[in-house]
Amino acid sequence: MTEKLIFIDIDGTLVDYENNLPSSAVDAIHQAQDNGHLVIPVTGRSKAEMYENILAIGFDGYIGGNGNYVELNDQEIFHKHLTAEDTKAIVDWLHQRGLEYYLESNSGLYGSKKFAERGKETIQAYSAYKGKADAKQMDVKKVFPDMIFGSDPYRDDINKISFILDDYQDYLDAKKEFSNYKVGTWGGVGEKALFGDVALDNIDKSVGIGFLLQYLGKSKEDAFAFGDAKVDIPMIEYCGTGIAMGNAGPETKEAADYITADVDQDGMWKAFQHFGLI
């Protein structure tokens, strides 16, 4: 079979919303690689959030920041990020509003002064929406164990800035204030608006994939995309074959060419088998 590129979202696709990684998914990835295919995660996570249990799988590349950063064989080949001026403007606005935030960079996650304290309640709500039984025992340090506090927030290497929504109006005002950027919300299962985020406009998962395919001289017809959320729709529609997990939302399923089983019901393995990748 001709070499294919398999692009996989992480949260809700590779791992479930309790961060459980099915062994069948790991087996499918390794067998596909043995068959000569490339397997690459495509995620909103910056490199600092690619924890060891995921990195240990051994991917052929990495696309992070929802498409703003691309690696191939551990070498950076593409990176579009907020400038120092962008970051300062966003951070100053958040300070003015009294909103706590964290900066997402490949070098680390950088929390605002009171993010750990203010974030406890929101993190518990986020954990509950992700289905965690111990949600009431969660806090920022458990969810983001490597988060760094007290650093200068005016950085020039930031992929995205996430902030706690005290009210949905905070998101609406951010969207108005930063109309030249991509402003969104997130919050676990159902994509509930617990956090807002600000990133560069005109960047989505298909941008990173498109750059990598061009770099490798590959056609999008050679590409498979797996996802579960609305943020995955651009890559599902862009790639030659788009696959939605059984636990995906209705809009994501509608955009897909094929719907597999849930992430925790061997959905990835079953789809890899269905398309002859393994």
Automatic annotation (TrEMBL):
Gene3D superfamilies: 3.30.1240.10, HAD superfamily/HAD-like. Pfam families: Hydrolase_3. Keywords: Hydrolase. It comes from the Bacteria. The keyword Hydrolase applies. The keyword Hydrolase applies. GO terms for molecular function: magnesium ion binding; phosphatase activity. InterPro entries: Cof (IPR000150), HAD-like_sf (IPR036412), HAD-SF_hydro_IIB (IPR006379), HAD_sf (IPR023214). GO terms for cellular component: cytosol. This is Cof-type HAD-IIB family hydrolase.
